[in-house]
UniProtKB/TrEMBL annotation:
Species of provenance: Arenibacter certesii
Name of the protein this chain belongs to: Uncharacterized protein
Transmembrane portions of the chain: 92-112
Keywords, ordered alphabetically: Membrane, Transmembrane, Transmembrane helix
Length: 116
């Protein structure tokens, strides 16, 4: 089973007011989803975000955003460029492929030798 991890792509401290406690200590964080398995590691293009008040520790959901928060979010969203969606194979994958091709090659060799 592959493990999924949300890797921090970009963090920014915002000076906007929190809709809950009206303090100016917000933190905007963008995450990118990575999957780690035994045979491959995959980087997806899925981006998620989170705005959290560092004073009252509450998550600020898009329903309660003000126009200022939306404007700042759009600005930082354009700045957060995700990594390309890629698949990287692990050494276990390459060992298994090498082992499989050698077994097929040896089997084909013995089959050819029995017909000659």
């Amino acid at each position: 089973m592959a493990k999924e991890k949300m890797v921090v792509l970009k963090e920014a401290d915002l000076t906007n007011n929190c809709p809950e406690c009206f303090n100016q200590e917000l933190k905007l964080t963008f995450y990118q989803k990575h999957s780690y398995g035994r045979l491959f590691d995959r980087t997806t293009k899925d981006l998620t975000h989170e705005i959290k008040c560092t004073k009252c520790n509450s998550l600020i959901y898009p329903v309660t955003w003000t126009e200022d928060i939306e404007r700042v979010y759009d600005y930082y969203r354009r700045m957060a460029t995700p990594e390309k969606a890629t698949i990287r194979f692990t050494t276990l994958f390459y060992i298994l492929v090498l082992l499989l091709t050698s077994v097929i090659g040896i089997g084909a060799y013995f089959i050819i030798q029995t017909f000659i």
